[in-house]
Amino acid sequence: MEELRRAGWYWGNMSVAEAKERLQDAPEGTFLVRDSSHSEYLLTISVKTSAGPTNLRIEYQDGKFRLDSITCVRSRLKQFNSVVHLIEYYVLMCKDRSGSETTSNGTVHLYLNKPLYTSAPSLQHRCRITINKYTRLQLLMHRKEELVHFVVFLHLSFRRVTSTQTRWQ
Question: Could you tell me which of 83, 75, 81 has the C-alpha nearest to residue 41?
Answer without folding.
Answer: 83
